[in-house]
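User: Could you go from structure to sequence for me? I need the amino acid at each position, not a summary. Structure tokens:
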């Protein structure tokens, strides 16, 4: 298969088994988290414990209503745990898309054919986006299937809205990882920058909700625009989605521009 979307199709075939294992891992993670809920559902002691935590720590842990279905899923699954696991996939996939090929000395072989750098880059982007989308959709299935036995009877539109919000959030960091690594030709730097920014901005956003001098910096963090609790309670958040998607497009464009202009490492 040559031309067109050949590289995307090839990547898809080569990485399908890996994506399947990641999907099974995501399902197992969500099942374990969901299965634990009946043991704490309706326990007022846990909600009281959350309310007694220092004010600065509460935003880092999640909503106070830990024992409600929405509060439990937001705090135990969507706030940090599930996005972090999928982000490991996204960052790894993003950094290996271009920089991995370059470090393996196969990128120059790909570019020796009738394909432009722009086309190759965009097909690699599509491969990363596809993988994140699959894992995000897969993460929905266990909660929907186990809604009745676990008591996590959250409306499907709430789960869909938080999943879309999470996908846009993960997309930004994955594109950031790909952009940085493709700009310098090194996977390690892309991993370090994207993971460091993800963790650092998580702390800034959480602490900024109670520390006055950090509050203005929250607007610059991706976590500020990823609000799992609000997405589950209020539905789609078009403003937040627009910010995250726009940021993803910008970092992708920057990575493409730099990649097109630089010399490949030997």
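Assistant: Here is the amino acid at each position, in order:
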């Amino acid at each position: 298969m040559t031309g067109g979307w050949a590289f995307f199709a090839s990547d898809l075939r080569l990485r399908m088994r890996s994506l399947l294992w990641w999907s099974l891992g995501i399902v197992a993670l969500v099942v374990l988290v969901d299965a634990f809920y009946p043991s704490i559902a309706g326990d007022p002691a846990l909600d009281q414990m959350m309310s007694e935590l220092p004010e600065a720590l509460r935003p880092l842990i999640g909503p106070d209503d830990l024992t409600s279905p929405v509060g439990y899923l937001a705090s135990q699954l969507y706030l940090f745990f599930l996005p972090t696991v999928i982000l490991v996939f996204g960052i790894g996939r993003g950094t290996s898309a271009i920089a991995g090929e370059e470090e393996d000395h196969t990128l120059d072989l790909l570019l020796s054919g009738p394909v432009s750098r722009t086309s190759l880059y965009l097909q690699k982007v599509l491969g990363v986006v596809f993988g994140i989308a699959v894992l995000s959709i897969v993460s929905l299935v266990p909660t929907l299937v186990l809604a009745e036995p676990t008591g996590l009877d959250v409306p499907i539109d709430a789960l869909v809205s938080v999943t879309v919000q999470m996908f846009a959030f993960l997309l930004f960091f994955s594109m950031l990882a790909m952009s940085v690594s493709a700009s310098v030709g090194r996977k390690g730097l892309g991993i370090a920058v994207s993971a460091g920014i993800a963790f650092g901005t998580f702390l800034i956003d959480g602490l900024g909700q109670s520390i006055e001098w950090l509050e203005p910096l929250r607007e610059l963090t991706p976590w500020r625009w990823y609000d799992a609790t609000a997405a589950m309670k209020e539905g789609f958040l078009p403003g937040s989605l627009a910010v995250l998607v726009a940021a993803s497009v910008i970092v992708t464009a920057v990575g493409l521009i730099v990649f097109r202009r630089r010399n490949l490492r030997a």
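One structural detail worth keeping in mind: The first helix runs from residue 6 to 36.
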